[in-house]
Specification:
The protein has 548 residues and is α+β, with helices and mostly antiparallel strands. It contains 16 helices and 21 strands.
Length: 548
């Protein structure tokens, strides 16, 4: 590789502008011009989902009254046609006509009633809806009324996670509220989403290595999906996944990659690089329940945070694929960005001498997925300067992370850990509750002691409308409380960095949704083309796409 060629490549990968690129070396992505705009019977893509696969899959196989979305309001109607909020407690929903379950049976207002009544008895446990009572009334063949018995401002957005199933699924599998999704616990045509779960399952604490989805012929939006079959892998070795996505064709079509692997992805014969600013998060928990007792000293946790040079992490570890944030919650959330710009957070004046005194000789056990080792090496390099030693326990599977994390509050974790990294992709969607819920000290997701101040703030959060002036104030109080108590090890907010097959038209969403139903392939994709080998004239590197 010539020096000029190498420098040009660096410019392209690390710059946010693509001006003055030499077209004889890099080409623009024009795959959309060759897209297959119908459901090809042989179309098939393969995807790696290392974080919250149960949520990504569930949002492709299931449907509710509304669906989370990348638009300004953060949601769109799904099975509902319209809704009206009568007052702080009352909602009326009208459903679309001629809806069918994935097995072809009719979806009626009775289906809505049955599912909502089942959910009322078995609510999920990751918001506050399990503590809210409500009544459901059928108004006519297409409308229902939901009346809350207490004020709760997250109810409407919670409905984006309340999915509707056939009576068979409700009776046979009796999905009950847990800390993670239960809507993908068994394969079958039980739901209403654009894809049918054909084999495998994923429910957070348990999952199969491979999951197969197939296009739903009865999906209400006849524009979608465009791909017949999707194979999803949930637990691959990070290096194997990268190799499969970048160096081979037909093994992985869509895969997140480490930030330091961008150049290889761009120069691949088979992949292109797609990047998007994201509300996803990397949360680094401190175990304040049964971890190293030194971590219970707030000064030690503050010293660990202050020992990290965030700009160096962003520049040299993230390769600039992110944004500095004063909080563990992504600064890409609009309300968090607004709060951060006010710069009201404390700047600790801890001296280098004091940091060394607090940290020298500290030994911490780290539990992490292998996909985050690029970050841990950067953290380790910096903490070593203060005499901190990190020991690693590494897994390829998020279910192993959950097995320890969700049992720590009750001290039933089978492995000892002091810090734990979790890919907290934006599952609640465009709402900081995605991360704030880990500060609910009575939750299994929490690894902090009881905090009366935090409880007070979170209770207020549940009751505050997003468009009220108090909303920013209460979010600010939660963020600052978490920062001041140093409940987590802060790292910069991340971008999505994804290797995508050159013949796949895929535009990532901002947070924890992968819109497989909108994804397309071209006529040259490995699953449909007649030629065995990928034509050499298509090997030319593609300019990285930064999605707005």
């Amino acid at each position: 590789m010539s020096r000029i060629f190498f420098l040009l490549m660096i410019l392209i990968v690390y710059s946010h502008t693509m001006d003055n690129i030499e077209e004889d070396i890099f080409k623009e992505d024009k795959s959309s011009l060759d897209a297959i705009n119908y459901l090809h019977p042989k179309s098939h893509i393969k995807v790696f989902l290392p974080s919250i696969p149960y949520i990504y899959i569930s949002k492709n196989t299931n449907a509710g009254l509304i669906r989370s979305d990348d638009n300004e309001q953060g949601w769109v109607y799904d099975l509902a046609k319209s809704h009206e909020r009568i007052d702080d407690y009352t909602y009326i929903f009208e459903i679309k006509r001629n809806l069918k379950f994935q097995d072809g049976t009719s979806f009626t207002i009775e289906s809505v009633m049955n599912n909502l009544n089942h959910f009322k008895k078995n609510p999920f446990l990751f918001t506050n809806v399990d503590k809210i009572d409500f009544e459901i009334t059928k108004l006519d063949d297409y409308r229902i009324k939901i009346k809350l018995k207490q004020k709760y401002e997250m109810f409407f957005l919670d409905l984006a996670r309340v999915f509707f199933f056939t009576d068979e699924y409700l009776k046979k599998y009796n999905p009950k509220g847990e800390e993670t999704e239960t809507g993908t616990k068994a394969a079958g045509a039980f739901g209403m989403g654009p894809y049918i779960l054909k084999s495998g399952y994923a429910i957070g604490k348990k999952q199969t290595n491979k999951i197969i989805l197939e296009a739903n012929p009865y999906y209400w939006d006849k524009r979608y999906p465009k791909i017949k079959k999707v194979t999803i892998f949930t637990q691959l070795d990070a290096n194997e996944a990268f190799d499969s996505a970048v160096n081979y064709e037909g093994l992985l079509d869509i895969s997140p990659i480490p930030f330091d692997k961008k150049i290889e992805a761009v120069m691949s014969k088979y992949s292109k690089l797609v990047i998007k600013e994201s509300t996803n998060n990397i949360i680094v928990f401190f175990n304040l329940i049964n971890g190293n007792k030194k971590l219970r000293d707030k000064k030690v946790r503050i010293a660990l945070n202050e020992a990290l040079n965030q700009e160096n992490l962003l520049n040299f570890v993230y390769k600039k694929e992110g944004t500095l944030s004063p909080f563990s919650t992504s600064i890409h959330f609009k309300v968090v960005n607004k709060i951060a710009k006010k710069k009201e957070y404390k700047v600790y004046s801890m001296s280098e001498k004091e940091k060394h005194k607090l940290l020298d000789g500290l030994v911490l056990d780290v539990f992490t997925q292998d996909r985050f080792m690029f970050l841990w090496r950067g953290i380790e390099y910096q903490l070593e300067q203060y005499g901190v030693k990190l020991n690693y326990l590494v897994t390829t599977s998020e279910k192993d992370i959950y097995e320890q994390l969700l049992n720590t509050k009750s001290s039933k974790n089978s492995k000892s850990w002091d810090m734990l990294a979790w890919g907290d992709d934006d599952w609640y969607y465009q709402n900081p509750w995605t991360t704030l819920f880990i500060y609910e000290s009575d939750s299994p997701w929490s690894t902090i002691p009881n905090d009366a101040f935090m409880k007070k703030y979170i209770d207020k959060f549940f009751e505050t409308k997003i468009d009220e002036s108090e909303y920013e104030d209460v979010v600010s109080k939660i963020l600052y409380r978490a920062r001041d108590m140093a409940y987590t090890l802060r790292v910069p907010s991340i971008n999505k960095v994804i290797a995508v097959n050159k013949e796949v038209i895929f535009e990532p969403y901002e947070g924890g949704i992968i819109p497989l139903w909108k994804t397309k392939i071209t006529k040259k994709h490995w699953s449909v083309r007649k030629k065995v080998n990928y034509p050499e004239n298509l090997h030319q590197p593609i300019i990285p796409l930064r999605v707005k």
